[in-house]
């Protein structure tokens, strides 16, 4: 059997196996996958094992502020290490994503780093301590689950990149719907220089954002992406320039995203859901999801109000 046929068969068997197990467990009790996670106990992922390991690498924090405007601010906060992700920060990120999943009034999210830089990837102290393949795979599954749930939130999300986004930090930017960069900032998938490939889902998402040609250049060349190059290949959705002495990059990013979050939460969240299903599902499944989401807003308060207003879209 050829290698690719073997891979295909393994993938199909794995998917069917996970699907069947998922169905069984769902029938027996609570759902085994939280939010939109990829790996569950049914796939042999033991989350508790890696949680315990990550707990041993403390420092920094992931801060979350849910604002009245419906836009939340998430801060990657470990400035002494250029906002590198310690083990406890990975665990906190999971908690923050869970909080956002429960935030029914939410419409938008800005992810940014503390002290003028985005994130320098995994904390190298933790990486050295768990540099065996078994632990690496567990960390990878944990982070893929968390970042997949982040991307699947019914919120319009933006990564605001100031300074550097390196390694895992560059992968985190791809788990948001949009990326904004400030002048002088850089995104770099440094994995090749570390003898690695992305493991937090960054490669799969990057291909969907910039196409496989550009993704190959960024990963195989470990190329630095500045604001111009970022916009040219579609990795960056805009360059933030400060409008006045009082303005801040975060303030400008909030203004930028509020153009998309203006309006009632159920409508904005519905928009994100139909785009997400279009992005991730085969066409027929996406069409069915779109129909279901449409049903949640048709005849709803915002729809009835608009009909009563008789708006003209000039
Ligand atoms: C590759 C994938 C993998 C994954 O998927 O898990 C990773 O993400 S591995 C991590 C990849 N990132 C790096 O290798 C970053 C290495 N660091 C740098 O290149 C530089 O520190 C840089 C460019 C971020 C900042 O350079 P600058 O000259 O401005 O500052 P310093 O080098 O003096 O850094 C200040 C302070 O931060 C510590 N630091 C920075 N990044 C990390 C990190 N990822 N882990 C742990 N510590 C980090 C650096 O060591 C300095 O600490 P100090 O105690 O002063 O030496």
TrEMBL record:
Statement: the UniProt record of this protein carries the keyword Cell cycle: no
Keyword annotations of the record: Cytoplasm, Lyase
Compartments it resides in: Cytoplasm, Cytosol
Known EC number: 4.1.1.94
InterPro entries named among the record's database cross-references: ClpP/crotonase-like_dom_sf, Enoyl-CoA_hyd/isom_CS, Enoyl-CoA_hydra/iso
GO CC entries: cytosol
Gene Ontology MF terms in the entry: methyl/ethyl malonyl-CoA decarboxylase activity
Subcellular location, principal: cytoplasm
Keyword Lyase: yes
One annotated GO biological process: fatty acid beta-oxidation
Enzyme class: lyase
CDD domains, A to Z: crotonase-like
Catalysed conversion reaction: (2R)-ethylmalonyl-CoA + H(+) = butanoyl-CoA + CO2; (S)-methylmalonyl-CoA + H(+) = propanoyl-CoA + CO2; (2S)-ethylmalonyl-CoA + H(+) = butanoyl-CoA + CO2
Pfam families reported in the protein's UniProt record: ECH_1 (PF00378)
Role this protein plays: Decarboxylates ethylmalonyl-CoA, a potentially toxic metabolite, to form butyryl-CoA, suggesting it might be involved in metabolite proofreading. Acts preferentially on (S)-ethylmalonyl-CoA but also has some activity on the (R)-isomer. Also has methylmalonyl-CoA decarboxylase activity at lower level.
Family note: Belongs to the enoyl-CoA hydratase/isomerase family.
Designated name of the protein: Ethylmalonyl-CoA decarboxylase
């Amino acid at each position: 059997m050829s290698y690719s046929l073997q891979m295909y068969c393994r993938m199909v068997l794995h998917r069917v196996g996970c699907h069947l197990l998922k169905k069984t467990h769902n029938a027996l009790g609570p759902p085994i996958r939280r939010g939109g996670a990829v790996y569950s106990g049914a796939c042999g992922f033991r989350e508790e094992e890696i949680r315990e390991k990550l707990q041993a690498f403390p420092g920094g924090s992931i801060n979350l502020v849910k604002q009245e405007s419906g836009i939340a601010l998430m801060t990657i906060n470990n400035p002494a290490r250029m906002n590198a992700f310690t083990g406890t920060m990975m665990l906190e990120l999971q908690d923050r994503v869970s909080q956002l999943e429960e935030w029914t009034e939410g419409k938008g999210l800005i992810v940014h780093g503390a002290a003028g830089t985005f994130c320098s990837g995994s904390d190298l102290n933790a990486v050295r301590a768990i540099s065996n393949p078994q632990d690496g795979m567990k960390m990878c599954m944990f982070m893929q689950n968390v970042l997949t749930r982040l991307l699947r939130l019914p919120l319009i999300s933006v990564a605001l990149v100031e300074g550097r986004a390196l390694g895992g930090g560059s992968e985190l930017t791809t788990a948001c719907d949009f990326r904004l960069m400030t002048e002088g900032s850089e995104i770099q998938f440094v994995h090749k220089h570390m003898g690695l490939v992305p493991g937090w889902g960054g490669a799969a998402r990057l291909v969907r954002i910039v196409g496989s040609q550009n993704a190959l250049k960024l990963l195989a060349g470990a190329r630095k992406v500045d604001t111009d190059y970022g916009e040219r290949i579609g990795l960056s959705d805009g360059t933030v320039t400060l409008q006045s002495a009082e303005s801040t990059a975060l303030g400008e990013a909030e203004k930028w995203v509020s153009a998309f979050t203006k309006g009632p939460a159920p409508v904005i969240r519905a928009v994100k859901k139909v785009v997400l299903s279009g992005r991730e599902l085969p066409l027929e499944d996406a069409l069915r999801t779109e129909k279901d989401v449409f049903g949640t807003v048709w005849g709803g308060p915002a729809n009835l109000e608009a009909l009563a207003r008789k708006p003209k879209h000039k």
